Amino acid sequence: MDLGNWMNKILIGWGVDPKIANTFDEAIIAVLMICIAVGLDYLCQSIFVGGMKKYTKHSPHVWNTLLMKRRVFHNLIHTIPGILIYVMLPMAFVRGKELLLISQKICAIYIIMSLLLALNGVLLMILDVYTEKATAKNRPMKGFIQVLQVLLFFVGGIIMIAILVNKSPASLFAGLGASAAILMLVFKDTILGFVAGIQLSANDMVRLGDWITLPSGNANGVVQEITLNTVKIQNFDNTISTVPPYSLVSNPFQNWRGMVESGGRRVMKNITLDLTTLKFCTPEMLDNFRKEIPLLADYQPEEGVIPTNSQVYRVYIERYLCSLPVVNQDLDLIISQKEATEYGVPIQVYFFSRNKIWKEYERIQSDIFDHLLAMVPKFELKVYQYSD
């Protein structure tokens, strides 16, 4: 059926000059077809998408909820008027071959774009479903989905360009091979991010929720998001740092996950004693320690050994820490004397706090070392304090 001639006859029948009718008949048909397509689109959206909304509201499932959320149905329905217009265009433009070709290209691009958006929605649905799984925290998928999105729109873009220039998509892809160096430069960060994402995931180097610290000091906080081009870290001062994934592969960083998952958080501090106050204990001193310090009530040095007051103090520190519920006794607890320096003799206290929450951890270690410092004079020792 020749819709153009049909409209031409109608216009002439209405008294329109034949020359004007010949000029505008096909244009009027094109406008009418667009109006019909738009009306059909609204009708289909109302029937199919509206029906799906009602179904989702009454019977919410993962698949139909995500179909609506990611607008997969909406974009698929948009292809219906595009296909209808494409099929009917030859009937409208009989004489105007150039207009027919341009209109068909526009329709084809519209259809491809709607399909790309629908497929992109499907990829986002896959990401949503995967994110809900418990394993998603250990294997973030967002970077891989972003790679597929880039490939999807890249291929779709090549196909649309091929339609516009009347070339085969295969010939355009072949031509891109010669421009590989330029493409590598343009997509350098994307390629590096993709490879780094695979390494981070395969080697389990970082997960969502991990506390990481960068030696540069640019980031010290919790990983919030891992994408193709960035790793987003919320610092403890609530600022946000973003670093490229490949920087975590090429440069060292500290991941505190092992500490979080272990039975405690390490405390390692020194108490520096004045070297001039170290001395051997007399029997009277030992008796006084036993009377005044309950934790040393049963202390007896090894036979033939005359302990120093520093040695007895180290014994006290160990017994004191062993008496505290907040100290994890199943992990290392080491009290050692380090090499003396011009600032005194360091006593290193090394143990693990059961409570790993930052605020509580700081309070616990502060209380413990307040007590240990206050006990130093009890052993006739002094803490070294520099003075001019």
TrEMBL record:
<dbReference type="InterPro" id="IPR030192">
    <property type="entry name" value="YbdG"/>
</dbReference>
<feature type="transmembrane region" description="Helical">
    <location>
        <begin position="109"/>
        <end position="131"/>
    </location>
</feature>
<dbReference type="GO" id="GO:0071470">
    <property type="term" value="P:cellular response to osmotic stress"/>
</dbReference>
<keyword id="KW-0812">Transmembrane</keyword>
<feature type="transmembrane region" description="Helical">
    <location>
        <begin position="143"/>
        <end position="164"/>
    </location>
</feature>
<feature type="transmembrane region" description="Helical">
    <location>
        <begin position="72"/>
        <end position="89"/>
    </location>
</feature>
<dbReference type="Pfam" id="PF00924">
    <property type="entry name" value="MS_channel_2nd"/>
</dbReference>
<dbReference type="GO" id="GO:0005886">
    <property type="term" value="C:plasma membrane"/>
</dbReference>
<dbReference type="GO" id="GO:0008381">
    <property type="term" value="F:mechanosensitive monoatomic ion channel activity"/>
</dbReference>
<dbReference type="InterPro" id="IPR006685">
    <property type="entry name" value="MscS_channel_2nd"/>
</dbReference>
<feature type="transmembrane region" description="Helical">
    <location>
        <begin position="27"/>
        <end position="51"/>
    </location>
</feature>
<keyword id="KW-1133">Transmembrane helix</keyword>
<dbReference type="InterPro" id="IPR010920">
    <property type="entry name" value="LSM_dom_sf"/>
</dbReference>
<dbReference type="InterPro" id="IPR023408">
    <property type="entry name" value="MscS_beta-dom_sf"/>
</dbReference>
<protein>
    <recommendedName>
        <fullName>Mechanosensitive ion channel MscS domain-containing protein</fullName>
    </recommendedName>
</protein>
<keyword id="KW-0472">Membrane</keyword>
<feature type="transmembrane region" description="Helical">
    <location>
        <begin position="170"/>
        <end position="187"/>
    </location>
</feature>
<feature type="domain" description="Mechanosensitive ion channel MscS">
    <location>
        <begin position="189"/>
        <end position="257"/>
    </location>
</feature>
